[in-house]
């Protein structure tokens, strides 16, 4: 469902972040992306959700070459990918309910559908009772659960999560992983960059290591493989 063919990314200042990456990610995979800081992990993720464009090479998502998408098709492409960040990125002045339903306004859902689906995902992340709170009133783990609810509200086929547990303590991180596992179990592909060795080593999913802009390792039931 996601395929990269010899993808290169050179930033305008000349930094070569990726230097010929080819990979295939199947529907319903759970993929960990590991590797040293500066290796190219975030760039790899950004290319998938089209925040950055490759300098060279092809990227396919659900059979579409995302470089060739017509401008008017981009919103449809984006709704198919949910993104989760280390720093949550909730809108601070909107309530939890509004943060989630706002993501549906972008796709012009009708108000009744929006309400039903927002309550459904709030239920899934166990935050129904926080619907009217502001993000600043929630703990880090709760804020990340809101961000995950927002990421899945449009039923994407893929979730891209860039260090989603990076700001959370170990117990809270495990809660987030259980939630992502549940979402994966329900049929969503998950691609997650992480420096969390315990999580990668305990989950035994597919692991790719990016080093120096290249895929250095790709294992079906992999481990973290670094000492840091
Ligand atoms: P990682 O996520 O593994 O830490 P990144 O993909 O963020 O790696 O970065 C890969 C390389 O590209 C690094 O050398 C980084 O400094 C550089 N880089 C990332 N973003 C930019 C940018 N917007 N402009 C220039 N260089 C960048
Ligand atoms: P319906 O089509 O009836 O709205 P859905 O397939 O949207 O049903 O949802 C069925 C259940 O699965 C709901 O509890 C919903 O929250 C959950 N769900 C649906 N899609 C996803 C997804 N991509 N990730 C996680 N949970 C999902």
From TrEMBL:
It comes from the Bacteria. InterPro entries: AAA+_ATPase, ABC_transporter-like_ATP-bd, ABC_transporter-like_CS, ABC_transpr_LolD-like, Cell_div_FtsE, P-loop_NTPase. NCBIfam families: FtsE (TIGR02673). This is Cell division ATP-binding protein FtsE. Residues 2-227 form the ABC transporter domain. GO terms for biological process: cell division. Keywords: ATP-binding, Cell cycle, Cell division, Cell membrane, Membrane, Nucleotide-binding, Transport. It is a peripheral membrane protein. The keyword Cell membrane applies. Its main location: membrane. Belongs to the ABC transporter superfamily. It comes from Paenibacillus albiflavus. Part of the ABC transporter FtsEX involved in cellular division. It is found in: Cell membrane. One of its GO terms (molecular function) is transmembrane transporter activity. The lineage of its organism: Bacteria, Bacillati, Bacillota, Bacilli, Bacillales. One of its GO terms (cellular component) is plasma membrane. Homodimer. Forms a membrane-associated complex with FtsX.
């Amino acid at each position: 469902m996601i395929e990269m063919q010899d993808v290169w990314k050179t930033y305008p200042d000349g930094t070569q972040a990726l230097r010929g990456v080819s990979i295939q990610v199947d529907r319903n995979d759970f993929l960990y992306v590991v590797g040293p800081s500066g290796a190219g992990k975030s760039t790899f993720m950004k290319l998938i959700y089209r925040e950055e464009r490759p300098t060279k090479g092809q990227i396919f998502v659900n059979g579409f070459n995302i470089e060739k998408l017509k401008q008017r098709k981009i919103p449809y492409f984006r709704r198919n990918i949910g993104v989760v960040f280390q720093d949550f990125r909730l809108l601070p002045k909107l309530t939890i309910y509004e943060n989630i339903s706002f993501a549906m306004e972008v796709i012009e859902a009708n108000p009744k559908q929006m309400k039903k689906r927002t309550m459904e995902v709030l239920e899934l992340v166990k935050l129904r009772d926080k619907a009217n709170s502001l993000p600043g009133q929630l703990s880090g783990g709760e804020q990340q659960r809101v961000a995950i609810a927002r990421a899945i509200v449009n039923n994407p086929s893929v979730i891209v999560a860039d260090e989603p547990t990076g700001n959370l303590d170990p117990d809270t991180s495990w809660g987030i992983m259980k939630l992502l596992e549940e979402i994966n179990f329900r049929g969503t592909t998950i691609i997650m960059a992480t420096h969390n060795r315990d999580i990668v080593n305990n989950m035994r999913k597919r692991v790719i290591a990016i080093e120096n802009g290249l895929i250095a390792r790709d294992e079906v039931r992999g481990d973290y493989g670094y000492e840091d």
